[in-house]
Amino acid sequence: MAPLLEIRDLHASVGDTPILKGINLTINAGEIHAIMGPNGSGKSTMSYALAGRDGYEVTGGDILMNGVSMLEMEPDERARAGMFLAFQYPVELPGVGGMSFLRAAVNARRIEAGEDEIDQLEFVKLVRAKAKHLSINDDMLKRAVNVGFSGGEKKRYEILQMALLEPVLSVLDETDSGLDVDALKIVSDGVNLLRDPARSMLVITHYQRLLNHIVPDYVHILAGGKIRRTGGKELALEVEESGYVGIDDAA
Amino acid sequence: MSASMMQPNLDQLAGLTGVRAGALSRWQETGWPNSRVEQWRFTRLASLEKMDLRPASAAAPAGTEAISAVLPENGVILSFSNGVLDVAGLAALPDGVTASFLSENDTALAVLAALVPASHPVSDLSLAVMTSGLHLEIAGRVDVPIILVFTGDDNGVSSHPVVSVKLADGASTVLAEWHQSAVGLSAPLMAIEVGDKARLDYAKVQHESAQSAHLAATGLTLGEGSVFEGFQISVGGQLARLETHITLTGENADCTLSAIYLGRANQHHDITTNMSHAKGHCLSNQIIRGVLDDSARGVFQGKVHVAPDAQKTDGQQMSRALLLSRKAEADAKPELEIYADDVLCAHGATVGELDETQLFYLTSRGIDRDTARGMLISAFLDDAIDSISHPALAAMLRPVTTAWMTASNRSETGDK
Q1: Considering only alpha carbons, which residue of chain A is nearest residue B383?
Q2: Would you say residue B396 lies in a domain?
Q3: Is some CB atom of chain B closer than 8 A to the CB atom of A76?
Q4: Has residue B390 been placed in a domain?
Q5: Which is it for the CA torsion A151, A155, A158, A164, positive or negative?
Q6: Does B290 reside within a domain?
Q7: Cα–Cα dist A101/A99, whole Å
Q8: Which residue has the higher pLDDT, B382 or B251?
Q9: Tens-digit pLDDT profile for residues B123-163
Q10: How far apart are the first and last CA of chain B?
Q11: What are the residue ranges of helices labelled H in A135-233?
């Protein structure tokens, strides 16, 4: 059986600048992998290349989900195939009601799977139940998407979307940035609830502290557009102590 | 006047007297404005001049059945075809509404002539030609919406319906105009007098056929303590200009005049407003939203004039245009002329595109790109549509924008 995600010798550029210079990474079902790296190492480029964002051009290699290449797929097709990107900076959508947004996303997934659109009342119940775990109240749910949310609220709202969409592969792009200790705990608990033998996660972070809460099976160190080291969770602690200095040379 | 200008056969108007004779002689002297006239710099009428139209004289047999399905259910419909009123409809007018003909009502005609935009080609030409002239007087509270439906089938004619509406002091009513004709030029002239403490909820839909031109001139006065809540949608026609002049003639009047224009292909939409605060303590608010695709062009010209003793005026105006194509173009010309010193006035105009980051966010959740675009365009328009408080009018207007977006998605998918 093909691994859930396989990244093969991935090269990607932003504009004319090569950022990813040959990433190889295999994630099996149920595994949590962490990608750590200094600023400018290509962490965000990697998340956008996976999600298929315009302007992040894959110049070589391949991305396969369950053995199927995603390179020719649009972002919405990748999402419906089970990929989810939790944004480092969630986007405000003034005038787009939160509930209708969440419902459109859930229904897009259901229609793809050949299911009926979700009943409105059933949907409201479902959202409230999931929102409760993330300390998201009705007032927040009623507002336009991300508008007027604090940094922590935005991150919790990302995890709510993740919980509703039940992705097979979640990419969490610096989900810990801008979070205080309490918010970090709420977000991490939300993520941990979604751990499942059938689902995998790729947790991208600059700091080790998130990995105290979301404990990874593997840690990879990304620097200069390549994975320089791979290890278990103890590698994150090592980086925390000695920093990223010298990682480039280790390759 | 140049020889190429549309010069309708106006021989039958030789016997005009009074204000209509004055309008005719002004028209004959000035004709269509050329592009050197500042007010017409963005909207050129050269195409109109070449059309060689003649003023309509007879109604078309076509009915309004297809349109009535989208109109408020409990409304009374007054139907104009090729600009000619079907007088049978007057029998259904509700209590509190009195109708007369402007051709037989010199007083109302003189009031109308004073209310409509001055030195305006439509004011002069339509007043002179006046394919039908209707005057309505509203007394007391009239809850039944009065809906003026304008249809037509002859692209060789111009239609010049003239309507004046007078709301007595303390009266209230709901008035809508629905324009969906295939005439060469539709040039409706409207005058509305809102009495002291009266209230008018008003909506207009410009949904003419793709080849038609629509040039509308509307004049309103708002009395003391009156409320006017107006909304216009310009979606049809090849060339359209909706020009509205409002004068706040009494203190504490509350005026909303919002508009949406939606253009594609090579449509040209022009929303021109002139908000004149003659008395103090009045509120005026204008929210203008435009969405332009293909090579469509949109124009918003909005003047807010505050007279020297119109203190405590609150005049707001915000125009935003969304361009969906690189070939689309929007022009905005907001103007504030303020002669009082204790006022709160603000205006703004922006032109932008759909935000790629927002589109990516939506599509990254599995929502397809067309749906995502539609969600963002709806959100953009809702700012304006949410300002309509009358439920029947909101219910009439919302489907117009929804239908436009559905058609937009279809054409985009077809291009791929």
Answers
A1: A95
A2: no
A3: yes
A4: no
A5: negative
A6: yes
A7: 5
A8: B251
A9: 999 999 999 999 999 999 999 999 999 999 888 999 999 99
A10: 47
A11: 138-142, 151-165, 181-193, 210-213
Query: Could you say which of A76, A84, A95 has the minimum Cβ distance to residue B367?
Result: A76
Domain count, chain B: 1
Cβ separation A87–B361 shorter than 8 A: yes
State the Cα–Cα distance between residues B134 and B164, nearest whole angstrom.
Answer: 6
Interface mutation target, options A88, A89, A96, A145, chain B, most CBs of B under 10 Å: A96
Contacts A108 to B, Cβ<8 Å: 365-368, 371
Q: What is the mean pLDDT of residues A114-132?
A: 95
Collect all residues of chain B within an 8 Å Cβ-Cβ radius of residue A100: 375
Dihedral (C-alpha) A32, A38, A39, A41: value to the nearest 10 degrees?
Answer: -70
Residues of B in contact with A79 (CB under 8 A): 363-366
Name the CA dihedral angle for A61, A224, A35, A179, rounded to a multiple of 10 degrees.
-130
Pairing of strands B329-338, B297-306: parallel
The neighbour count for residue B309, using CB atoms within 10 Å, is 11
Q: State whether the Cα torsion A5-A31-A218-A213 is positive or negative.
A: positive
Give the angle subtended at the CA of A136 by the CAs of A130 and A142, to the nearest 5°.
100
**What pLDDT, in 10s, does the model give residues B64-104?**
566 777 888 889 999 999 999 999 999 999 999 999 999 99
Look up residue B38 and give its DSSP letter: G
Judged by CB atoms closer than 8 Å, whether chains meet at A91 and B358 is answered as: yes
Q: Residue A58 and residue B361: Cα distance in Å, rounded?
A: 19
Domains of chain A: 5-250 (3.40.50.300)
Which residue from B364, B372, B379 is facing A85, i.e. has the nearest CB? B364
Structure tokens at B135: 């005057």
The structure tokens listed for A82 are: 């089970």
Residue found by looking up tokens 């030029």 in the block: B185
- Domain residues for the domain of B200 are 13-356
Token pair belonging to B232 = 């216009």
- What tokens were used for B406? 């559905």
Confidence band for B203, pLDDT divided at 50, 70 and 90: very high
pTM for the full predicted model: 0.89
Give a yes or no: residue B330 inside a domain. yes
Specify the pLDDT at position B63.
60
Is the pLDDT reported for residue B408 higher than 80?
no
Backbone angles phi, psi at B31, to 5 degrees: 60, -155
Residues in chain B closer than 8 A to A84 (CB atoms): 364
